[in-house]
């Protein structure tokens, strides 16, 4: 079979229909007609589009080498994918992972941040079925285990989003998601003022556009407190990855999950932060490539 590799800086785009009448935009890098066992689906985090993951997807496809493809898709409510449906929940995300695997034939999954939670929940449901992946890795997975995440800020965040108050919504998000960071110790009115100054940047304009869908996905993940025992059925070759410089919550969560899944691996990347995946940090790309090729 003749293999077709996407030109550098480009991707093959397709739009996939979903089970509920929606659509998902998928972008493929590398050898775009690679077989399923040599394809990795990237599931992105909250407030992030597939385009944000382009540098990582390109770098990972190069790290994997010829004959491999990386597929990254816009989850509901972002990019060229349709908005979240009225009954949106984690079940929607799981069904969408199944749809992407069917459309691409991919046999490997990688999830970052909230996308890591989607990947773990999906594979938990896929165990013993044709959709159980060959390999699963997550980096800084955002999972609420036994109430390990304080979700008391979510209602206030949702109110600020609904009121269109972007600075206060950003302040609540920063304090809620990174409670131990220096910014979290700043009083909210002051922090909101700082957020107002930076909210004109391109990244924060994107945040503003994605905030409504962000409310839905954060509630879908954090309102359903998952239990360590629920994930014990995950494949023994599952890899839990975390950045040593990421917020402490991610390392605690990764350690809990690792202990719950017999045979799994825990890898701490010494120089990496939470945003090291979209930034395509070299050491991470090399480690992730080696895992899937190995």
Q: What can be said about this structure in brief?
A:
This protein is an alpha/beta fold and about 290 residues long. Helix content is about 40%, strand content about 15%. Strands 1-2-4-3-5-6-7-8 form an 8-stranded mixed sheet, with helices on both faces.
Structural features, described:
The chain is an alpha/beta fold and 294 residues long. It folds into two domains: 12-146 and 225-293, Alpha/Beta hydrolase fold, catalytic domain (Rossmann fold); 154-222, no CATH class. Helices cover 40% and strands 15% of the residues. The protein has helices spanning 54-64, 90-104, 114-126, 154-162, 166-177, 188-198, 202-222, 248-260, 282-293, and strands at residues 12-17, 23-30, 39-43, 69-73, 108-112, 135-139, 239-243, 265-269. Helix 2 crosses helix 3. The protein starts with 11 loop residues before the first strand and ends with a helix. The model has no long low-confidence stretch (mean pLDDT 86).
